[in-house]
């Protein structure tokens, strides 16, 4: 199944597919791809499902690169926001399981599928319990995703 087929087969985001990284808008500069022609499209998950889950901590984006789907949250990397990002990751995993199983089946296998890309600087104390929680969840913030 292709990324396009998986998106179109997911009713909640079926009309939200964008070419390249267009769905990320200005945040697309936070992603660098060695071969941009291998990008098969992107979806702004947060915007697409906001009316269905208005009070949830929704994940931002997904995109396909070289046949694998990556999920990116662009968010402040400060100690007080770690729990918010972890809640977003929990929401995403449940949403993939319950509402987007085809997309879930395409998530990246060659490397981690979930990324927290910091919106600005990094201000999480490395010795804090919040930092340890993020690391344990496999979602430590990075300044840029390079594929």
Care to give the gist of this entry?
This protein is an alpha/beta fold and 147 residues long. It contains five helices and six strands, in the order H-E-E-H-E-E-H-H-E-H-E.
The whole-number mean of residue pLDDT values reads 96
- Give the DSSP E fraction (strand runs of 2 or more residues): 15-25%
Q: Indicate the low-confidence ranges by residue numbers.
A: none
Count of helices? Answer: 5
Strand count: 6
Q: How widely separated are the two ends?
A: 22 Å
Q: Helix- and strand-based class?
A: alpha/beta
Spatial order of the strands in the main sheet? Answer: 2-3-4-5
Q: What's the main sheet like? A: 4 strands, mixed
Rg, Å, rounded: 15 Å
Q: Work out the helicity level.
A: 25-40%
- Form type: globular
Order of helices and strands: HEEHEEHHEHE
3D structure, described in words:
This protein is of the alpha/beta class. It has 5 helices and 6 strands; from the N terminus they run αββαββααβαβ. Strand 3 and strand 4 (68-78) form a beta hairpin. The longest helix is centred in the middle third of the chain and has 18 residues, at 82-99. The chain is globular.
Keywords summarizing the entry:
alpha/beta, four-stranded mixed beta sheet, 29% helix, 24% strand
Detail the topology: elements first, then pairings:
Layout: H1 3-8, E1 31-32, E2 39-44, H2 45-49, E3 61-65, E4 68-78, H3 82-99, H4 101-105, E5 114-123, H5 129-136, E6 145-146
Parallel strand pairs: 1-6, 4-5
Antiparallel strand pairs: 2-3, 3-4
């Amino acid at each position: 199944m292709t990324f396009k087929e998986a998106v179109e087969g997911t009713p909640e985001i079926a009309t939200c597919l964008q070419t390249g990284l267009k769905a990320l808008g200005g945040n697309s500069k936070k992603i660098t791809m060695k071969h941009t022609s291998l990008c098969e499209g992107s979806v702004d998950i947060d915007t697409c499902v906001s009316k269905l889950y208005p009070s949830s901590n929704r994940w931002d984006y997904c995109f396909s690169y070289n046949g694998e789907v990556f999920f990116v949250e662009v968010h402040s990397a400060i100690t007080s926001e770690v729990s918010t990002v972890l809640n977003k990751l929990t929401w995403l995993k449940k949403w993939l399981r319950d509402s987007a199983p085809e997309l879930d089946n395409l998530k990246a296998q060659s490397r981690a599928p979930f990324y927290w890309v910091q919106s600005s600087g990094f201000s999480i104390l490395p010795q804090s319990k919040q930092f340890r929680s993020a690391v344990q969840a496999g979602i430590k913030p990075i300044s840029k995703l390079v594929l």
